[in-house]
Design a protein that fits this description.
By secondary structure, the protein is α+β, with helices and mostly antiparallel strands. Helix content is 31%, strand content 30%. The radius of gyration is 25 Å and the shape is flat.
Length: 387
C-alpha cells in the first residue's frame, strides 16, 4: 500500500490521508483502518440519465467524484474484496446529497480517508500496511489422499488460494489401478494450482504437509512432471530448493497451525510477525495449563489484571478494535496503551490468521502476568456496561 499524502493535526489527531492499495492483503489492512463515521472520497462509475431537447432520455456511464460518510464496512475474505457503504456528503450534480452508495475499494486506485481521530491502533495498522518489508514469503500445501488446501501465509492473514478435492477409488487387493490413476489426477491438479496460483518470485518457502507418505509421493511426482524444460510446471522444478516437506495430521486448513509450530518451520518464520505471535500464544497455553495463576483470558479477567498492574504481555485480536461499541473500542485501546506505558508487550493478532483464530476462541483477549493473581470476577461484571 502506498501512502500518497498525510494531513493529520497533531493536537487532536484528526485529518486526512490519501492511499493507494496495491494487493489483496492491503484490503484486509484497510478493513482494520476504516471505521463507521469516517468519510471516504474517491472516483466511481455511475449511470447518469440525461433528457434531450426532444424529451428523449438517455443513460450514460460517467466517472464522478464522490464522498460518503461510512456506515458499514464489509470484507469478503475468500476473494479479498472490501466494500464501504454510507450516505453521500458534499455537493454533486449527479448524486443527490444523503443518498446511499456502496464503494468497492480497488487495487491501484487512490482514495482519501478522513477521520476525527487517528488513534494509536489505526496508525499502527497504517504503518504495517505501508511497510514494504512486511510481505508474504511463505506458502503451504496441506494435503491428504484426494484433498489439498493451497494457502498463502501472510503476516496478518492466511489466504486460501485453492482447494483441490478429487474422489480417489479405494485400493482393493490385486486391483490398485483405479486408485493409482485417481492419485495421479489428484497430484496433477494440485501441481497445476501450485504453479498457477502461487508467485514463486515472492515466495521464499513452500511447505508441503501431509500425514503418512502423501507429501513424499506428491513431491516425487511433481519433480518428474516439472523437470523437462518444456513442462508447463517447470516453475516448480526451478524452485525445488524452496520446498520443505513436513508432517500434518490431515489435509484440512486447521492443520496449518500445527505445521507452523514445528521447529524446522519456525526457523523459516524466524523474522516474521506470525512467528512471534505463535510463540507467545504457545507460551500462554503452557502457562494456562501448568500455572494458571500466571495467565488469564476474557475481558473481565484481563481488566482485573490490568487494574492490578499485573499484565506483562497482552494478547488481543483485531476484531475487538472493529467492535460497534465505540466506548468498548476505547477501553481496549486504553489496555494497549496502558500495558505499553507500564513496560509490557502487546501482540495484536489478525482474526484471519491461524493464530488469531485460536485467540478468538478465547474471546479475543488474553494476558501473561508479572505476578500470580486469583480471579474472582463476578459474572454480572460486564466490560461493555462499564464503557
Amino acid at each position: 500500500m502506498k501512502l500518497l499524502k498525510k494531513e493529520i493535526i497533531a493536537k487532536n489527531q484528526s485529518g486526512r490521508i490519501e492511499l493507494q492499495p496495491d494487493e489483496d492483503e492491503d484490503m484486509w489492512h484497510l478493513y482494520n483502518i476504516i471505521r463507521a463515521g469516517d468519510s471516504i472520497k474517491t472516483t466511481t462509475i455511475r449511470k447518469v440519465k440525461r433528457e434531450g431537447a426532444t424529451g428523449s432520455v438517455s443513460t450514460n456511464k460517467m466517472t464522478i467524484s464522490i464522498i460518503i460518510k461510512v456506515e458499514k464496512v464489509n470484507f469478503e475474505a475468500d476473494v479479498c474484496k472490501l466494500r464501504v457503504s454510507g450516505k453521500t456528503i458534499g455537493e454533486n450534480e449527479h448524486v443527490p446529497k444523503g443518498s446511499y452508495h456502496t464503494i468497492e475499494i480497488e487495487a491501484h486506485k487512490k482514495f482519501s480517508l478522513t477521520k476525527f481521530c487517528w488513534d494509536t491502533i489505526v496508525m499502527e495498522a497504517l504503518e504495517e500496511a505501508c511497510d514494504t518489508n512486511k510481505k508474504a514469503d511463505l506458502a503451504a500445501v496441506i494435503m491428504q489422499d484426494g484433498l489439498a488446501h493451497i494457502c498463502l501465509v501472510l503476516n496478518s492473514m492466511t489466504i486460501l488460494k485453492s482447494k483441490v478435492e478429487i474422489s480417489i477409488p479405494k485400493k482393493r487387493k490385486g486391483f490398485t489401478n483405479q486408485h493409482d490413476k485417481g492419485m495421479i489426477r489428484f497430484y496433477r491438479a494440485v501441481l497445476r494450482d501450485i504453479c498457477t496460483k502461487l508467485d514463486f518470485e515472492q515466495i521464499k518457502c513452500l511447505l508441503i504437509a501431509s500425514p503418512g507418505f502423501v507429501r513424499d509421493e506428491f513431491y516425487k511426482f511433481a519433480i518428474t512432471e516439472s523437470e523437462p524444460k518444456t513442462s508447463e510446471f517447470r516453475v516448480f522444478f526451478e524452485n525445488k530448493n524452496k520446498i520443505l516437506k513436513v508432517h500434518s495430521s490431515d489435509g484440512y486448513k486447521h492443520s496449518l497451525r500445527e505445521v507452523l509450530a514445528q521447529p524446522e518451520v519456525a526457523r523459516q518464520l524466524a523474522d516474521t510477525k506470525a512467528a512471534s505471535e505463535l510463540n507467545v500464544l504457545n507460551e500462554f497455553y503452557e502457562k494456562l495449563t501448568k500455572a494458571p495463576e500466571w495467565a488469564c483470558y476474557g475481558p473481565n479477567e484481563v481488566r482485573h489484571a490490568f487494574e492490578e498492574g499485573a499484565i506483562s504481555t497482552l494478547l488481543i485480536s483485531d476484531t475487538l478494535f472493529r467492535h460497534s461499541n465505540a466506548g468498548l473500542r476505547k477501553r481496549y485501546l486504553n489496555f494497549v496503551e496502558g500495558v505499553r506505558n507500564a513496560g509490557g508487550k502487546v501482540f495484536k493478532f489478525s482474526s484471519l490468521h491461524v493464530t488469531g483464530e485460536r485467540l478468538n476462541s478465547l474471546t479475543g483477549i488474553a494476558a501473561l502476568l508479572r505476578f500470580p493473581l486469583e480471579f474472582d470476577v463476578s459474572s454480572d461484571e460486564s466490560l461493555v456496561n462499564d464503557c
